[in-house]
Design goal:
mainly beta; 4-stranded antiparallel β-sheet; 3-stranded antiparallel β-sheet; rod-shaped
Length: 526
């Protein structure tokens, strides 16, 4: 409350004139200001100096203290509120001050804000030039994590994350900040830090999928922490997203029941989109270079996985094969129980349900396919020259388009699909699961494929002359009866495959020297 102190000796007009330069006076809207011995005082009409009160002049308010002197560059308390007066003694309004607290000049300086009425902002949010600032009960501008009650009341440093009530305040106005979780103590020096993206004006951390932050996709969990590495959408709407490859908590891809993304390292964070990426599966902790796999992410950043994303075609059985010394053999017990086909950049690829592309050889529902090397993966079609594990080259042929099944006698439509390795006649060459069959022990031999006999030479060409003998060095190897007595298929993959009229005097081609049937359909993935 206002107090008045009686000046012991009222300065007379004559005395004032005599003091000259040492004293100045001016009229104020509340009392009269006078300078005495270099200090300003404000007097009422009775000559009493005002104390502990604001006096105004020329639209500004000035505070005089206990001794009646004008207070400068200091906090003042009046009617239970706190104000700051500048170096000229004027009460500041709509302005900031970096200074020590009201009652402790030895403390660290803090930022304070004086509102339009000059009162210090306390326990509230203030919007200044489009940005929000929060102040505690002592008027200190808060930085870091802040939690508010309903509306703008009960502002405090956050003790944890509360949806819609926890904000991050950064005095630089940064949109990205890296900090520990809300409520982390200053003494917890080992606490993990996370990246947060603050929404403009409010400082509220973004949660969920943010599709356009500087043109990139970022994923945040329900507490606003940016997710990195392998990230999966949570079925729990409060969790939003979670990391699959979090250190010491690695999860298999099968844990993700919805969309999966890859978001780089903890200081990168944006989701890969519309691109290929070669990296480790989330549960692969060895991180050997040879263990990296290829994955495809669409324009929304979603990983393509068989069974989770729409595929052009699916299959329920894929057995991994390898070309071992010229023979197609099962690659241990590796394979996939569900795969899906997708076209990327005009090429066809097949993917497992963990998103890994198929590479090299896979037998899919009984048909053999080839997907290039470890860094290719596109489904191969047409004539292919492929090296085995020893470096020798072998010829293959894979259909360039789906075949008309009405022209073929096989009931297995899968073997007639685009990319399937030919079994039978292709351009008068004989193939078995895509691999070119050749006579090896002799110049000509009989190869029995799908219950049809073919005569082939060492180049794999199918022979189809009647009433003749096929010889080597003058020795008869195979005899074919005259036309009419002999019969062979005229069309499709069995063209020139004899059903009778062939007499072979040498051993037939051993198909096991080209292809081995699968030993098991129980698979383990890498």
């Amino acid at each position: 409350m206002r107090k008045q102190t009686k000046i012991a000796a009222v300065v007379s007009t004559a005395a004032l004139l005599a003091l000259g330069a040492s004293m100045t006076s001016f009229a104020a809207s509340k009392g009269t200001w006078m300078m005495v011995d270099g200090e300003w005082y404000c007097y009422d009409k009775n000559g009493d100096a005002y104390t502990n009160v604001f006096c105004s002049s020329n639209g500004k308010e000035y505070y005089v203290g206990d001794d009646g002197q004008l207070v400068r560059s200091a906090w003042v308390e009046y009617d239970g509120s706190y104000y700051f007066v500048n170096s000229s003694g004027a009460k500041i309004t709509n302005d900031w001050r970096l200074t020590t607290p009201y009652d402790d000049e030895s403390a660290d300086e803090e930022w304070y804000y004086s509102k339009s009425n000059g009162k210090r902002a306390e326990n509230e949010k203030i919007t200044y030039k489009g940005k929000s600032y929060y102040f505690d009960t002592d008027g200190i501008m808060l930085t870091g994590w802040v939690t508010t009650g309903e509306g703008t009341s009960a502002v405090n440093e956050a003790n944890g994350y509360e949806k819609d009530h926890t904000f991050y305040c950064d005095e630089t106005g940064a949109r990205w900040v890296k900090d520990t979780k809300p409520g982390t103590g200053d003494d917890d020096v080992d606490a993990d830090e996370y990246w947060y993206y603050l929404k403009k004006a409010t400082g509220k951390p973004a949660t969920g999928k943010q599709s356009n932050i500087n043109g990139q996709i970022y994923l945040f969990n329900g507490e606003g922490q940016m997710q990195s590495g392998w990230v999966a959408a949570a079925t729990d709407s409060n969790t939003k997203f979670f990391q699959l490859d979090k250190e010491d908590e690695e999860e298999k891809m099968s844990v993700a029941e919805s969309d999966v993304y890859y978001c780089g390292d903890e200081d990168g964070g944006h989701a890969k989109k519309n691109k290929w990426l070669k990296t480790w599966l989330p549960y692969d902790t060895n991180e050997e270079e040879d263990d990296k796999e290829w994955f495809w992410f669409d324009k929304e950043g979603k990983l393509f996985r068989a069974g989770y994303n729409t595929a052009a075609e699916t299959a329920s059985n894929a057995i991994k094969y390898k070309l071992d010394e010229g023979v197609l053999v099962q690659d241990d017990n590796r394979g996939a129980t569900l795969i899906g086909k997708k076209k990327v950049n005009s090429k066809d690829y097949w993917f497992r349900n963990d998103g890994v592309i198929l590479s090299k050889f896979y037998q899919i529902n009984g048909a053999m396919y080839c997907f290039g090397g470890a860094d290719d993966g596109s489904m191969k079609t047409g004539s292919q020259s492929i090296k085995d594990n020893t470096g020798d080259t072998y010829k293959f042929y894979f259909y360039t388009k789906d075949q008309d099944s009405t022209k073929y006698q096989t009931p297995d439509v899968q073997k007639l699909k685009k990319g399937a390795g030919v079994t039978g006649n292709q351009s008068n060459k004989l193939y078995y699961y895509g691999l070119l069959l050749t006579a090896d022990d002799y110049k000509y031999q009989v190869a029995t494929v799908e219950n049809h006999d073919f005569i082939i030479n060492s180049n794999g060409s199918i022979q189809h002359s009647f009433d003749t003998s096929y010889k080597e060095d003058g020795d008869t190897l195979i005899t074919v009866e005259a036309k009419g007595a002999a019969a062979y298929e005229e069309d499709g993959q069995y063209k020139y495959g004899f059903t009778k009229g062939v007499t072979s005097k040498v051993s037939d081609v051993d198909l096991n020297e080209f292809y081995n049937a699968p030993a098991t359909t129980t698979f383990t993935l890498k």
